[in-house]
Automatic annotation (TrEMBL):
PROSITE patterns registered for this protein in UniProt: UPF0029
Listed InterPro entries: EFG_III/V (IPR035647), Impact (IPR023582), Impact_N (IPR001498), Impact_N_sf (IPR036956), Impact_YigZ-like (IPR015796), Ribosomal_Su5_D2-typ_SF (IPR020568), UPF0029_Impact_C (IPR015269), UPF0029_Impact_CS (IPR020569)
Domain UPF0029: from-to ranges: 143-198
Domain of life: Bacteria
Protein's recorded name: YigZ family protein
Pfam families: DUF1949, Impact_N
Taxonomic lineage from the root: Bacteria, Pseudomonadati, Myxococcota, Myxococcia, Myxococcales
Domain Impact N-terminal: 21-127
Similarity remark: Belongs to the IMPACT family.
Length: 208
C-alpha cells in the first residue's frame, strides 16, 4: 500500500440493518486526525443518546496501519464490538476512517459470537458501499525563475497536479507550488529542462 496515496471516506456514510430484532445503525466518516475521530464519535453519540450502545473504532493513517487506532465496546461484553470493528476497519482497505455502530436492543440476546459477527458485519457492510476519495500527501516547493519561463511553467502544472500557493515578482519570479510528494522529482526535472537550467529550486516543505 502506498502510504502517500490511499483511499479515504469521501464524506459521512450511513447504513442500517436489523439483526434478530436489534437495530444497528453504522455511521462512517473521514478521520484525518485522532481529534477528528473523537469529535465524530461524540457527534454520533449526541445524535443517538437513547441508544443502548454506541460502539466505535477508528484508524488514522494508511489502510491497515495500527499506529493510531482506537476502539470501544461501549457497554457490550468485552471484546465483542470494538475489537471486531477495528479488525474489520484494518482489513477494509480504507485509511483515515472512523466508524460508530449504534445499537437499539430488540430483546433477543445475540451471545458473544453473535455480537462479534454482528459488529463485524455492520462495518463490512458500511465499507462495501462507502464512497471514497484519494488522500494524497502533498508538499510545497519554492521555485525562482526568469519571466520568459512563466507561461511554460504554468502549462506544466496540471501534468504534475501542482497548484500555485504564492507568487512574488521582482528581478525574477518566485513561486511556491503545492503538489503530491510522489510528483516532486519529475516536476523538478521538468522545470530544469524547460528553463534549460535557469531555475532555482528550494527545499521541499511538508504540507502545513
Amino acid at each position: 500500500m502506498d502510504e502517500k496515496r490511499y483511499p479515504i471516506p469521501a464524506g459521512l456514510h450511513r447504513v442500517e440493518q436489523d439483526i434478530q430484532r436489534s437495530r444497528f445503525i453504522t455511521t462512517a466518516a473521514p478521520a484525518p486526525t485522532v481529534e477528528d475521530a473523537k469529535a465524530f464519535i461524540a457527534r454520533v453519540r449526541g445524535e443517538f443518546p437513547d441508544a443502548n450502545h454506541n460502539c466505535w473504532a477508528y484508524v488514522v493513517g494508511p489502510p491497515g496501519s495500527t499506529a493510531q487506532v482506537g476502539m470501544s465496546d461501549d457497554g457490550e461484553p468485552h471484546g465483542t464490538a470494538g475489537r471486531p470493528m477495528l479488525t474489520a476497519l484494518l482489513h477494509g482497505g480504507v485509511g483515515d476512517v472512523a466508524v460508530v455502530v449504534t445499537r437499539f436492543f430488540g430483546g433477543t440476546l445475540l451471545g458473544k459470537g453473535g455480537l462479534v459477527r454482528a459488529y463485524t458485519g455492520c462495518v463490512q457492510q458500511a465499507l462495501e458501499s462507502l464512497p471514497t476519495t484519494e488522500r494524497v500527501r502533498k508538499v510545497r516547493l519554492s521555485v525562482e525563475l526568469e519571466y520568459a519561463s512563466i507561461d511554460g511553467v504554468r502549462r506544466l502544472l496540471p501534468d504534475y497536479e501542482a497548484t500555485v500557493v504564492s507568487e512574488e515578482y521582482g528581478a525574477t519570479v518566485g513561486y511556491r507550488f503545492e503538489l503530491p510528494v510522489t510528483r516532486v522529482g519529475a516536476f523538478r526535472t521538468a522545470l530544469t529542462d524547460l528553463t534549460q537550467g535557469q531555475v532555482l529550486l528550494g527545499e521541499v516543505e511538508s504540507e502545513g
